[in-house]
Write a structure and sequence with these properties.
Layout lengths: L3 H16 L3 H6 L50 E5 L5 H10 L4 E6 L2 H14 L4 E5 L12 E7 L8 H11 E15 L4 H4 L2 H5 L8 H10 L3 E11 L3 H4 L5 H8 L4 E10 L11
Parallel strand pairs: 1-2, 1-4, 2-3, 4-5
Antiparallel strand pairs: 5-7, 6-7
Helix pairs in contact: 1-4, 5-8
Length: about 280
């Protein structure tokens, strides 16, 4: 696997290409951008938003692996931060829950995604939804800012997950909480898949063990950690055969290794001061 800076650049380039296509084009071009058609079809992870309040189809690029807002307990007036906000899909759903009195901040490291999300917000007339270009490992947000942090199939793409969850802890208000959907592994992926750049950008080889994921959250200081949803993800054989031969594929499928999408909840202990100064 490449070094962290190279990984970030690779992810940024692939998601910039995705930003310039709609959901249907993404699905038709395997992993969202024609240039990486040898990679992963993101539709194997995504779930339908069509019945969700606040859903805006033009902001849905089909890149998620869950519905974090479904479990996020967002209340009117909350400040919500969405990590890896893409074209704004989860931000606009969160905005429907937090209402006109709340605030939603989307953070993404890809300029093309930020531009697309900002254009969507202007088109929709949302003045309490904003987007910031930035890195999840060093968020452009002050401490104790968010009542709720959400993220959808993004943290697996972050090379340093310890830094990412430490940053989540920093930006949460005391008493605040997170609800994130992500991809995790149970078992061991074959080395050929671990080393494949396309499988990293496709949210597979960057995923870590479920137990390690939960330990990282606890180490960051988060409490009351619990799984809200877990779903097995089946990667089609035709994708796996791009990296494995027939015997390797057979061994992998009989190994007991599983790829899962999860939605997980956690809290930052303490009560908010209630003064509004945060």
């Amino acid at each position: 696997m490449k070094n962290p800076d190279a990984l970030k650049l690779m992810v940024k380039e692939k998601y910039a290409a995705i930003a310039n296509q709609d959901k249907e084009q993404n699905a038709a071009s395997c992993c969202g951008a024609t240039a990486c058609c040898e990679g992963v079809d993101y539709s194997i992870f995504s779930e339908s938003y069509t019945q969700i309040q606040g859903y805006q189809s033009e902001a849905d690029l089909g890149l998620g692996c869950g519905l974090p807002t479904e479990f996020a307990q967002i209340k009117p007036g909350d400040t919500v931060i969405d990590l890896g906000s893409g074209a704004g899909n989860d931000c606009f759903v969160a905005r429907a829950l937090t209402g006109d009195t709340g605030k939603v901040i989307g953070i993404d490291m890809t300029e093309a995604m930020i531009s697309k999300a900002m254009a969507n917000a202007v088109k929709l007339g949302f003045t309490n939804v904003s987007f910031r270009l930035g890195d999840i490992e060093a968020m452009p947000v002050s401490a104790n800012k968010a009542d709720v942090v959400i993220s959808n199939c993004v943290l697996n793409l972050v090379p340093d997950k310890n830094k990412a969850f430490s940053e989540i802890y920093r930006v949460l208000k005391p008493g605040g909480h997170l609800s994130v959907s992500d991809v995790v592994i149970k078992g061991q992926l074959p080395k050929a898949i671990q080393d494949a750049a396309e499988m990293y950008a496709g949210c597979v080889s960057g995923a870590i063990q479920l137990e390690e994921y939960l330990v990282i959250m606890k180490t960051a200081g988060l409490t009351n950690i619990r799984l809200q949803k877990e779903k097995a993800v089946v990667v089609p054989d035709d994708i796996l055969l791009k990296y494995l031969n027939d015997s390797e594929l057979k061994a992998f499928k009989s190994s007991g290794t599983g790829i899962f999408s999860i939605t997980v909840y956690a809290e930052k202990a303490g009560a908010s001061c209630g003064c509004g100064c945060c």
